Amino acid sequence: MVLGSKGVGKSHYIAVLINQLKNSFATEFGTTLSPATDRTTVKYRDTYYKRLFEEGRKLSSTPSYEDDRASRDPMIYYLRFLKDETPRVYTLAFFDTAGEDLDSTDKMLSLNINSFISRASGIVYLVDPLQIPYINSRIRMENKPPNGPDVNDKLSYIAGIIRSSNKLKPKEHIDIPLAVVLTKVDVLMKAPENEEEDKVLFGPESSLNIGREHGRFDRVNFDEISAEVQEYLRRTVSPAFVQTVSQFNSHEYFAVSALGNNPTGSILTRGITPFRVEDPFIWLLNTCNSKREESK
Q1: In this predicted model, what pLDDT tens digit does every residue of 1-38 receive, in sequence order?
Q2: Confidence bin at 105 (pLDDT 50/70/90)
């Protein structure tokens, strides 16, 4: 389940991830991704693919469930691994939630979002660096958005919903794997224009510039990136945010860019060049598979 504040890039992330799973990921890992229903095919084509990949325009904001009940219909796919001696098949359900539907615990309960979150096999929690006040005040770029809501508050609401729904004790860890994903990282990988901007950028020595090993789960690479992004968010958001993340038994930090560049208005003048979009999915898939094997 992909969650995050309004404007963090949830729809773009889902749209690009599905396209990557159909193409480069399939070639790399020997898989096929097939829609489970015609409804999924039509929704992905009409809501995501045509506008983003054919028309070269940013996607519209996801409407709140209060305004459009159909907006919460998941897109369901079958992911088949064909190279294994025993072919594996996973059912993937992509939920694209409106950021404003996560504004409070009461709102999540009133819209029944708690039932989806508490039963999720994995959560991808997106964090827009440009909405973080510490980063926003220092980064130099065009089309800079305003500061966003506190990312720790929303994750705390989500953790609270899961604890309540699953009747967890205060000191029990949450057993749903959590991928914390810093989005739009392309804007954080440029040459700094001054000392203040240098404080919020990833330099050429960053672990993000080291590619993962092709065709396998590269734990060393993911752990190095996770440690770096965790410390980055501890410094730019708060230690409290990292503490909230630690409530989840399995968690990892990532940095991605779905589009690969900053659009001009609503137009993708430089096309789409995804950066490490598959990483959180690879980690979640491996983590869920490990849990499945342990339970046998």
Answers
A1: 888 888 888 999 999 999 999 999 999 999 999 999 99
A2: low
Task: Say if CB 126 and CB 9 are below 8 A apart.
Answer: yes
Q: Which are the contacts of 105, defined by CB distance < 8 A and separation ≥ 6?
A: 157, 160, 161
CA–CA separation, 238 and 254 (whole Å): 17
The three-state secondary structure class of 1 is coil
> Checking DSSP bridges between strand 31-35 and strand 88-94, what pairing results, if any?
unpaired
Q: Measure the CA–CA gap between 264 and 58, rounded to whole angstroms.
A: 10
Q: Pull the structure tokens for residue 87.
A: 């072919």
If you ran DSSP here, which 8-state letter would residue 238 be given? -
Residue with tokens 């615990």: 105
Strands 31-35 and 2-4: unpaired
| Rounded average pLDDT over 162-178 | 91
Contact 19, 11 (CB under 8 A): no
